[in-house]
Amino acid sequence: MNKIIVSILILAGAFFILVAAIGLVRFKDLYSRLHAGTKAPSFGILLIVVGVSLFFNTPVVYLKGLFIIVFIYLTAPLAAHAIVKSFKGKNKK
Amino acid sequence: MEDTIPTMVLFIAFSMLLAAMALSFVRLLRGPSVNDRIAAMDLIASVVMGFVLVYSVLINQSIYFDIPVILSLISFFGTVAVSTYLKQRNE
């Protein structure tokens, strides 16, 4: 039972990262590219981390997984914001 | 730990991540502006984190779980540093 849940979580995470890459190639604008390319990978990494933590099933791994999730969800919007701010400054000139 | 994941699932996940890495590398090569290249670099860091996590399941070693913590830190600092440099150069 545990095996099935871990497999589904890992496959779903890899699928979300693949969708983000497809969106990064197919969209026309930088803003829509960032919309696809910065939010979906965070969710994919979240699913993969939860799956791998359930696979190893020790307290240290759960703590490190919590660190990874909190850090990614704190920093991914900040990185996207920094990219967009540098792009807007270039257009205004 | 007691029951292992079938290897086929891990290889399917590896192939999905490899396709994602190839697509974001395409965007890294032909992005019109530098900002597109930074976004592709950020996505490549996420893909590498996924690779390391799935590989730790494949070889059954939980010590590999340390790598994505450091990798997320480094990718965030790189993205913010390059975009801050671009913003200050444009002004």
Q: How does the SSE layout of this entry go?
A:
The complex is a heterodimer of chains A (93) and B (91).
Chain A: H1 2-26, H2 30-56, H3 59-92
Helix pairs in contact in A: 1-2, 2-3
Chain B: H1 7-30, H2 34-59, H3 67-90
Helix pairs in contact in B: 1-2, 2-3
Task: Outline the structure in words.
The complex is a heterodimer of chains A (93) and B (91). Chain A is mainly α and 93 residues long. Chain A contains 3 helices and no strands. Chain A has one domain (2-92). With 91 residues, chain B is mainly α. The chains are: A mainly alpha (93), B mainly alpha (91). The interface between A and B is large, with 54 and 52 residues.
Mean pLDDT rating of chain A:
88
Biggest sheet features of chain B: none
Structural class of chain A: mainly alpha
Distance between the termini of chain B: 55 Å
Weakly predicted, low-confidence segments of chain A:
none
Count of distinct strands of chain B: 0
How large is the count of helical segments of chain A? 3
Largest sheet of chain A: none
